[in-house]
Design a protein that fits this description.
This protein is of the alpha/beta class and 912 residues long. The protein is built from 21 helices and 48 strands. The strands form 5 sheets. It has a 27-stranded mixed beta sheet that branches. An 8-stranded mixed barrel has the order 14-15-16-17-18-19-20-21.
Length: 912
């Protein structure tokens, strides 16, 4: 039935409402239209509220509402004492708000009420706290106010009481409340009156006290509550020390400085308490008018929460959970919504409830409401389950759980309780949950798995029936190798432990297909079906057909099929490829993979996060089947790669992230042909950090990198102080790139060691390139091996730092032969940097051609050059040559032979 016809200007009463009023004469209606800043009243409302016109402007309307609502009748809901021209009426008023329009009703309750009835209707003392009840307390304070010069009302909230019900009986909880109330009652005096407000709230009224006195008393009250000894009616101590901790949150307001009457005093102190509980940094919070204006919406939300809980204004949409083989609906998840004029999202409700320490009320309503929904739709759940979200830290009390079971009985067998893993979960709490599940034959699901405290150890503690993988791991999973690896690991764990895996938040066809191919059991999300206020018999036919088709397809090129290596000794790579496997995920400590050098296989190998493996490659010829490196070392993982026979990796090489370790050994050969645009030889790309890299082999390593920005061995950053060690073996590096680095850290902090058993052959070509060291920043290089290097480019450094770098170069042994063809370069040293170069017991051969060229050192830099017991042969043909130099540093040559020819003229260097 509509009330006002808003299409008419001004709005007119509907015929239905006029007929209704003929039978119910003491009810009136009004509407407020925000865009018009006007309110309209019917004649009944005008008569009851003594209005002279059916139309009020905004100012008049809100003044009228304030006049009505300032005198609520204690103990009665929405009923107010309304006085106008010495005439008092009792008016019941309800308002339903939206952003644009309000609709309100007023009803005259004067016949049901009288002043005498009001005064005698309340209980003088609260039965639990044994303090003056709210009506008694308020009546007393109202009588005192006119004769008091200044006073303060403090509303005290008992933090921790709400948790007691989860492990104490109702009687024991009430005894605890009574103990606290008795403690606070001891502060009563001629100037302090204590009264009850609710089970969790107590009033303290201060007369003629200054602010400091009030603060001191309230702090003493909080200290007393924290140290309060809780006892039952027989004097037995109730110990809650290991379960909960009691304290106070306090909101204060003064009269007449802030509030002008008792109701305003209560409202302002409640607002101050609201702030104290939301902030939780201060025990005592004083009312602030500025905050009241700014936070009125938040405060309104808190009041709405109270209304939601008291009036049970929650309803539930349901979202299908779908089996991934047939596409059939096997369960529904109940998702909380609000009813009526309250428009609040579930997260908003929970956030406000958490701030008000009232999450238990939401938990209780959720269980009773959803079980009622199941009870009313039993035919739907003949072969289906109902998933119910639960907050494990606010588990139903024994009393409420027993009430739930007695009400719904065997229907609890149809539910699956969803909880999020909690690092604070106690063994006792988990055991209670398990007992209840066993008793009711309900099931358990771990929600949001993959976030927060999720790990396999915690999973084993709960022993769930379902594991719901969080949306954060499912979103764009078809494009994310790490997500696929992690989700695969979860799925495999579930399968191994007889658990059902469920992918949450599947929103696209690509995500659906990917999780099905990874082996997920169940899916849920907007793509299969959005939450609805009704139960679907089946999801959309085209989506169901898509699920079936994905299961039946023969896995063509581009799709993934993962082989999990857990207990294998040796894997035949060619056999796996013929069986359509695209990835090998390694979970074991030792494994051999055997291939055929003449048959290239599309395959990706990953050593999983936090695992360590000794992997032998024997005649393996692999190319990455996607855009990822051919071999990936997981986060904080370790890979010892043993090279046997002849092996080759294509597209991109071996990914070693920061925090991980990689070591290459063996007598065979490995060629990495990297042609990805931002390619990886061994390590990471030029934008990311790399882990420890060691090459200590008797065979041959060859890396070929072609791309825009490439790194042969190393990566972009070294924030973890990782080391690159080339200890032995023959290593050949070929890098052709716009910007590139053969060995080191692209953006500095390189830490490189080349041992005497290492034979290194490097060819680099590009616009800005470095052979060994860094392109920017710090480079620390220690070399004792034999190096042959050929560099070409616009700007290049052979060994050192390319752009204004720092660090040190130590060539302590061996033979270094550098041929440089570059417009601007330094063969050993830096360009405009501060790199110290020390050459000892070594043979250096430099062949340099360019415009601005340096053999050893840096003509614009500040680094020192020290050459001792070495032989240096240098031939330079350059426009602006510097053979051995430093801009502002020292150059020292001791007991060394220097044969330097610059532009066909010999340059003399004596020892100093």
């Amino acid at each position: 039935m509509s009330i006002f016809d808003l299409s008419k200007k001004p709005p007119e009463l509907s015929h239905d409402w006029e007929v209704f009023q003929q039978f119910v004469g003491n009810i009136g209606a009004f509407t407020y239209i925000a865009k018009e800043k006007s309110a309209y009243l019917d004649e009944s409302a005008c008569r009851m509220l003594a209005c002279t016109s059916t139309k009020l402007n905004e100012f008049e309307f809100f003044n009228l509402l304030e006049k009505i609502s300032k005198s609520p009748v204690e103990g009665q809901k929405h009923i107010y004492r309304f006085t106008n021209n010495n005439t008092t009426k009792y008016i019941k008023m309800n308002i339903y708000e939206s952003s644009d329009e309000w609709l309100g009703f007023v009803q005259d309750f004067s016949r049901q009420f009288s002043e005498e009835n009001e005064n005698s209707s309340f209980i003088e003392y609260d039965p639990v706290m044994r303090l003056p009840s709210y009506p008694s307390f308020s009546q007393k304070i109202k009588k005192l106010l006119p004769d008091i010069k200044n006073c303060c009302l403090a509303t005290l909230y008992l933090n921790g009481i709400e948790k007691l019900g989860s492990f104490l009986t109702v009687d024991s909880t009430n005894s605890c409340i009574a103990s606290v109330a008795e403690t606070l009652k001891s502060f009563s005096s001629d100037n302090i009156i204590i009264g009850a407000k609710s089970n969790y709230e107590i009033f303290a009224f201060f007369m003629n006290c200054d602010k400091m006195q009030i603060y001191n008393v309230l702090n003493s009250m909080d200290e007393a509550v924290q140290n309060c000894i809780l006892t039952d009616d027989f004097g037995e101590i109730i110990d809650i020390s290991d379960k909960s901790r009691l304290s106070l949150s306090i909101g204060c307001s003064s009269y007449p400085d802030e509030a002008s009457d008792f109701n305003m005093l209560v409202n302002y102190s409640e607002f101050a308490l609201y702030e104290a509980r939301a902030d939780r940094r201060h025990v005592i919070n004083w009312f602030s008018e500025e905050n009241y204006v700014r936070e009125k919406d938040s405060y309104k939300n808190a009041q709405l929460l109270t209304r939601i809980v008291m009036d049970n204004m929650l309803m539930y949409y349901v979202q299908p959970i779908v089996e991934t083989t047939t596409g059939e609906i096997v369960a529904y998840e109940a998702l909380m919504r609000t009813v009526g004029d309250i428009k609040m999202e579930p997260k908003q409700i929970l956030s406000i409830a958490s701030g008000q320490n009232n999450l238990y009320s939401i938990e209780k309503l959720t269980f009773f409401n959803t079980l009622r929904l199941l009870s009313e739709n039993q035919q739907v759940f003949a072969n289906k389950k109902l998933f119910i979200n639960s907050m494990s830290e606010y588990m139903l009390t024994e009393e409420d759980f027993n009430d739930l079971y007695l009400t719904f009985g065997e229907l609890l067998e149809k539910i699956v309780i969803e909880i999020v893993e909690d690092s604070d979960a106690t063994a006792e709490g988990i055991e209670t949950l398990r007992k209840r599940l066993s008793f009711t034959h309900s099931q358990l699901a771990i929600d949001d798995y993959g976030t927060g405290y999720s790990n396999l150890t915690n999973l084993l503690k709960y022993k769930p029936d379902y594991v719901k993988i969080d949306r954060s791991l499912i979103a764009d999973i078809h494009n994310d190798l790490k997500k696929q690896q992690l989700v695969t690991q979860i799925i495999e764990f579930c399968r191994d432990n007889q658990l059902q895996s469920l992918a949450e938040g599947v929103e696209t066809a690509q995500e659906l297909k990917t999780v099905i191919r990874l082996g997920i059991d169940l899916v849920q999300g907007y793509y299969t079906s959005k939450p609805k206020p009704l139960f679907l018999d089946s999801i959309a036919k085209d989506v169901k057909d898509e699920i079936i088709k994905t299961n039946l397809e023969t896995r063509p090129n581009g799709t993934r099929k993962i082989y999990a290596a857990r207990n294998d000794t040796e894997i035949d790579l060619l056999k796996l490829a013929l069986e359509k496997y695209t990835d090998i995920h390694i979970y074991q400590s030792k494994l051999t993979i055997v291939g055929d050098p003449d048959k290239q296989v599309k395959m990706n190998i990953a050593v999983m996060d936090n695992h360590s493996c000794e992997l032998t490659l024997k005649n393996v010829n692999m190319v990455s089947g996607n855009s990822k490196p051919t071999i990936s070392v997981g986060e904080y993982a370790r890979l010892v790669l043993i090279i046997s026979k002849n092996n080759k990796l294509g597209y991109s090489g071996i990914y070693v992230p920061m925090g991980s370790q990689f070591e290459m050994t063996g007598k065979g050969s490995l060629t990495i042909d990297c042609y990805a645009s931002a390619g990886i030889g061994i390590g990471n790309d030029y934008d990311h950090g790399y882990g420890d890299i060691t090459v200590d082999m008797q065979g041959t390593l060859e890396i070929i990198c072609n791309g825009m920005e490439t790194v042969c061995i190393g990566g972009g950053y070294n924030d973890d102080e990782s080391e690159i060690k080339l200890l032995s073996g023959k290593t050949k590096l070929y890098m052709y790139s716009h910007n590139g680095l053969a060995i080191g850290s692209y953006n500095g902090d390189a830490n490189i060691e080349i041992d005497e058993k290492c034979d290194l052959d490097i060819t680099v070509s590009g616009i800005k390139v470095t052979g060994i060291g860094s392109c920017k920043g710090i480079a620390t290089v220690s070399c004792a091996g034999d190096i042959n290097m050929f560099c070409t480019g616009a700007q290049a450094v052979g060994i050192g730092s390319l752009e204004e770098g720092e660090g040190s170069i130590l060539i302590r042994k061996g033979r270094v032969n550098i041929k440089m063809r570059s417009a601007k370069h330094s063969c050993i040293g830096a360009i405009d940097g501060d790199v110290n170069t020390k050459i000892m017991n070594a043979e250096i051969i430099i062949d340099s051609e360019g415009d601005f060229a340096t053999g050893i050192g840096d003509p614009q830099g500040s680094g020192n050059v020290f050459i001792m017991d070495s032989a240096v042969t240098m031939n330079m043909l350059c426009g602006n040559p510097n053979d051995i130099c430093s801009g502002s540093g020292d150059v020292q040559i001791q007991n060394s032979t220097i044969n330097s020819v610059v532009n066909n003229r010999k340059v003399q260097h004596g020892s100093n």
